[in-house]
Design a protein that fits this description.
The chain is an alpha/beta fold and 316 residues long. It has one domain. It contains eleven helices and six strands. α7 crosses α11.
Amino acid sequence: MVAPVPRPRLIGCDFTSAPSARKPIVHAVGRLVEGGDGGWRVVLDGLERFASLAHWSVALEQPGPWVGGFDLPFGLPRALVQSLGWPTAWQACMAHYATLSRAQIRATFAAYCAARPAGAKLAHRATDGPAGSSPSMKWINPPVAFMLHAGVPRLLAAGVALPGLHEPPGGSDRVALEAYPGLLARSVLGQRSYKSDERARQTPERFIARKDLLHALEAGSAPLLAVQGLRLHLSPAQHEALVDDPRGDALDAVLCLLQAAWACVQHEAGHPCWGLPPFDPLEGWIVTAGASVAVRPADGSGHTPGTRRAARTAPR
């Protein structure tokens, strides 16, 4: 009798390009459990914090299988890359980007913006529209360009698979997907803010928003969860800790965990690329962006994490 393939551990990563003891990188670690009602429970097993990029890099090398949603961009806008004359193959582009200092990135992107007309200073990726995400070339508020610069080379060095972008030689049972917690949060809260790093903005209204958001996640009523029958399972202590965190870092990690769980359900249903649609293989795509209904391919068989059974083509 063939032993069942173990279901991968789930990780949600709230990332910062300059981690410290005061503001570390946060991992929400959990698992997907079949519910008695035919749906799925996403059980939060715990939180891990990393005060340096070096410690985070070690965590990426932990044995699989695991699937993670990482809150950092995995690619740059094609229009930007072509304008700068950088390589348009993703791995070569990332290798070039990794050689630059943050000062060089800032100067290069600022010069690009200065030469562009008002209202079109920043180049966007195709995923930014449906995700509502910041352009990955932004170097301030938020500095996502530096998050890409700090995060993607370390994912590659750890031998992690990035579906649709990079497959390590021989494959990998550690899979990283680009996540964006704001996408899932906005599907519940609309434009209501639920967190702030500034003490003066850590208001009762944001506290109530966190309560409302967690209620929807635990009830499985968040639109992106409802179509897959997913709901978050927390202990009372975990629920209270997430509500009481005004910065929202751990809550953001949990939101990324749920996006990874969504992708895992898509994968188990036989989707060739973890629920990601066809996308530009230079830019990347945010998991669940543009998703409104469950995807159930005719071929319901699974496959090895990180591998691709269908050829990927750029949409432009």
